[in-house]
Amino acid sequence: MGFAGIAVGAAMAGLRPICEFMTFNFSMQAIDQVINSAAKTYYMSGGLQNVPIVFRGPNGASAGVAAQHSQCFAAWYGHCPGLKVVSPWNAEDAKGLIKSAIRDNNPVVMLENELMYGVAFEFPQEAQSKDFLIPIGKAKIERQGTHITVVAHSRPVGHCVEAAAVLAKEGIECEVINMRTIRPMDIETIEASVMKTNHLVTVEGGWPQFGVGAEICARIMEGPAFNFLDAPAVRVTGTDVPMPYAKILEDNCVPQVKDIIFAIKKTLNI
Amino acid sequence: MRKMLAAVSRVLSGAAQKPASRVLVGSRNFANDATFEIKKCDLHRLEEGPPVTTVLTREDGLRYYRMMQTVRRMELKADQLYKQKIIRGFCHLCDGQMLLPLMQEACCVGMEAGINPTDHLITAYRAHGFTFTRGLSVREILAELTGRRGGCAKGKGGSMHMYAKNFYGGNGIVGAQVPLGAGIALACKYNGKDEVCLTLYGDGAANQGQIFEAYNMAALWKLPCIFICENNRYGMGTSVERAAASTDYYKRGDFIPGMRVDGMDVLCVREATKFAAAHCRAGKGPILMELQTYRYHGHSMSDPGVSYRTREEIQEVRSKSDPIMLLKDRMVNSNLASVEELKEIDVEVRKEIEDAAQFATADPEPPLEELGYHIYSNEPPFEVRGANQWIKFKSIS
Hints:
Order of helices and strands of chain B: HEEEHHEHHHEHEEEHEHEHHHEE
EC number (chain A): 1.2.4.1
Organism (chain A): Pipistrellus kuhlii
Largest sheet of chain A: 5 strands, mixed
Largest sheet of chain B: 6 strands, mixed
Number of helices of chain B: 12
Number of strands of chain B: 12
Distance between the termini of chain A: 50 Å
Radius of gyration of chain A: 19 Å
Helix content of chain B: 25-40%
Structural class of chain A: alpha/beta
Number of domains of chain B: 1
Distance between the termini of chain B: 58 Å
Strand order of the largest sheet of chain B: 2-9-10-6-5-4
Strand order of the largest sheet of chain A: 1-2-4-3-8
Keywords (chain A): Carbohydrate metabolism, Glucose metabolism, Oxidoreductase, Pyruvate, Thiamine pyrophosphate
Oligomer: heterodimer
Strand content of chain B: 5-15%
Largest interface: A-B, 38 and 49 residues
CATH class of the largest domain in chain A: Alpha Beta
Cofactor (chain A): thiamine diphosphate
Enzyme class (chain A): oxidoreductase
Strand content of chain A: 5-15%
Number of domains of chain A: 2
């Protein structure tokens, strides 16, 4: 609360602070400053006072840290107008999104993932530049496909890519979309893909109720892609319990590759 | 000499437009300034406090009088408009009700007198007085209260969310503005321009945890933050005795030096603010001021204010400590101004408020098309979803 508010105040006075939460679980205490002091201010002031701040930190499940340290806040922050919320998967996402977040004149929440910090990725040449930016609000198609659209954010994107590799051997070609931004959501990329593949599976680490997948499904129903669905859209999510500690229990509380494959096959009626 | 003084006093004593029917005061010979004794402040961790005498010039006195009277009248008008249901929702007034600052005019005017326009100020929801002293017009303030397009936040914010240059509102969540203020002070220090930030909160908020977090970091990093507790003795309906284990709010900063100031005396507030600002500008770190004031009416318009205290108490304070009466008596008794002159200011202020209220009542509401505006800053236009998927609002920055 204290330092989050200090960071927001500094942003109001013209600096461009980055406020780090050790994990977003701790942001729950400070969430009043994120939402009421940062997100809503530009609107409440009639466009007079903007808040160019970045809140960053690890989000979601880690490994063996139990219930109070494992919550995913994508749905919580994604709910609020006035905020931008990004969720990187790989190294290039992390770099491009943090730079865009810092350069943005609005409050941006960057939901990182502790387990991804240690994973190495191919880093394309263009990403080496100090001005390499990834636009906020634009999803990326990580893998082209024709049979089904699989949408995810953060660490689960990797699991989807793995699942797609397994399914490719069986002749099923998945189109994997890395959301990169939770809010404002790039629904157009998802819609265009669904209109091509006619099937949709969403994957996230957070709890199912009122989550990112729920929002995607609702919007697909409201838009042009609905008429192209050959089966109901399906969600793969974290298990609907506070995160347990024992390894076997924890493993069954996050979506695994096998859960994604199962959901894809169910949707395709295979 | 007499004529010259008269001419000078006419120039100094008021606005450019004067009604032709005003009483001729030009032949009066006023003093240029006078010295007054002010209450000594109780001190915490300070060897010396603000001075116990101060000089008030005629020019300053007239300006303070006009400003306090304007804040008072503006708030009373807001009170009236709220009762007529032209103002909706929350209205915390400086005079106590509706979050109005009645009786707390000395605080906002006195503080402004102790700092520069380049300094910064942030407060909670009893903000109309400060919005005015920080530079906005009564028109813009009242029109914001009535939710019209001419309001300072274009009708988007209302009573609790008014902003001006170096004035950061207007904050609805009790206590949240205190860390914000420490953050603004951090920016002041970072920018190295010798600016300070006045960070206000009430006796109710003083028990909040985030305030102590702000005290800690401000002291650690020696931020030029003046923490100001406006103690009006009641946190909504709870008296300070029932709310705080320690009611010595000026000591609650512990390792932060503090002073207890008579918040009903504009000169006392001014000197204390000057002293506090000098402390911060000298790089000594944060300082705390407790302003002892009183809240006439209830916490807000929904609170008559008599269920938790007696009418006698209210009457007594009203008759003995009215900050405007105090200034008036001082000025008249020291020949800094005449009773007639001050009455004229009253008339002018009343007119200004009437005109502003007229505007605030007649100005149209913001256009519906602009409902989605100002979500993001510096952003290309996008669409905002309405009550259903077919209703869309355009959003521009």
